[in-house]
Amino acid sequence: MAVVMGSAFGGVVNAFVKDLLTPLIAAFGGQPDFSALKFTINKSQFLYGDFLNALISFVLVGAAVYFFVVTPMNAIAARTRREAPPAPATKSCPECLSEIPLAARRCAHCGQPVA
After folding, report:
1. What would the pLDDT profile of 7-31 be if each residue is shown by its tens digit?
2. Cβ proximity of 33 and 39 under 8 Å
3. Quick one: which of 22, 24, 26 has its CA closest to 50?
4. Which residues partner with 91 through β-bridges?
5. What is the rounded CA–CA span in Å between residue 110 and residue 94?
6. Has this prediction a pTM greater than 0.85?
7. DSSP, res 94
């Protein structure tokens, strides 16, 4: 199911780049379509416009996955992560009820032996 949704989402992002984002960038840059961008060296044509469209699509898919999948999953994991309470470092004196260290054999306040 996730693979099908992922490929459908990839198609939506590619259409978004091709039909909306590229013309929007072209409005500022003056180039109407990136897929027509190319240069020639020794009668070989390099179509870097298609690569530019694919690169923009890749960045947008990556950003969408990060913001819609990774960030919410990290937030859920942080909420469910519970830290154990620290072990007690003191105990109560049975005679005067004051707090004394766990290793103490006598109460510092009343002098009573503590088991």
Report:
1. 888 788 778 777 777 777 777 777 6
2. no
3. 22
4. 100
5. 10
6. no
7. T
How many whole angstroms separate alpha carbon 22 and alpha carbon 37?
Answer: 12
Name the residue type at position 54.
A
Contact 55, 35 (CB under 8 A): no
Task: Find out whether 85 and 97 touch, Cβ atoms under 8 Å.
Answer: no
Query: In angstroms, rounded to a whole number, what is the distance separating the alpha carbons of residues 35 and 51?
Result: 8
User: What span, in angstroms and rounded, lies between the C-alpha atoms of 64 and 11?
Assistant: 13
The CATH class of 2-80 is: mainly alpha
The token duo for 37 is 């961008």
Q: Give residue for tokens 């699509």.
A: 57
Using pLDDT thresholds of 50, 70 and 90, give the confidence band for residue 32. low
Residue spans per domain, the chain: 2-80, 88-115
CA-to-CA separations, 9 to 6, 16, 59, 84, in angstroms, rounded = 5, 10, 13, 41
Return the higher-pLDDT residue of 5 and 32. Answer: 5
